[in-house]
Amino acid sequence: MKYFWSHFLVISALAFTSMTAWSADLENGKKQFQFCALCHGKQGQGILGGGYPRIGGLPEWYLQHQTEQFVSEKRPNPAMVTVGRLDSMSEKDMEDLNAYIASIDLKKEVPEFEIPTYKGDAERGKELYKDDCKTCHGRKAEGKKKKEAPPTAGQYSEYLLRQVDFFKTKFRWHDNDEEDETFEDYTEEDIIYMLTYISTLDD
After folding, report:
1. CA separation for the pair 72, 57 (Å, rounded)
2. How far apart are CA 105 and CA 158, in angstroms?
3. 63-72: buried (b, 16+ CB within 10 Å) or exposed (e) per residue?
4. What is the pLDDT of residues 60-94, one digit of tens each?
5. Which segments of 53-187 does DSSP mark as H helices, in order?
6. Are 189 and 120 in contact (CB under 8 A)?
7. Which residue among 91, 133, 183, 201 is the one 20 to 30 A from 15 at the CA level?
8. How far is CA 153 from CA 87, 159, 183, 201, in A?
9. What's CA 83's distance to the chain center, in Å?
10. What is the biggest distance separating any 2 CA atoms in the chain, rounded to whole angstroms?
11. pTM of the model
């Protein structure tokens, strides 16, 4: 019995040490975030206009994937890498940063925060969304980790429109696939309708 408990305590101690070693340091993440806040806002709420998206509260797995894409230049944005200091962060700093951003509760921190409803035919947009977007981004645009598809509900419509334009011009690859042609057959009105529908969803 003594043998069992001695081994149990050793295993428990190792497990605790491992969890502690890998747990995120949110205070360090908040410190790293001060550079991101210069463009994305104090709580990561972003701004209207399409240039700086809301990032506060986005899933940690998605934030981690995107910061890696920026640093590796697979998703080019040298200004963000420089201003955000991503190029000088350690791996742990970046993990802490993404954990902190994901922990932000915008409804609590910025009660007045609200994504404006886009102007278009939301019902038509719902039909289009269900046809081509729901499978990856979720029924309520909540995102799906297994598809590596981010939530789009709660994001500024102007920013999403800008990303669609990037996908259409191949400046950025949709679904990480350079052959993807998801938006090729959609008219500008169709895109507006889909974004209008997404803007009505509560994340």
Report:
1. 24
2. 22
3. bbbbbeebee
4. 999 999 999 999 998 989 989 999 999 999 999 99
5. 60-71, 78-83, 91-103, 106-109, 122-132, 134-137, 157-169
6. yes
7. 91
8. 29, 12, 19, 6
9. 19
10. 73
11. 0.85
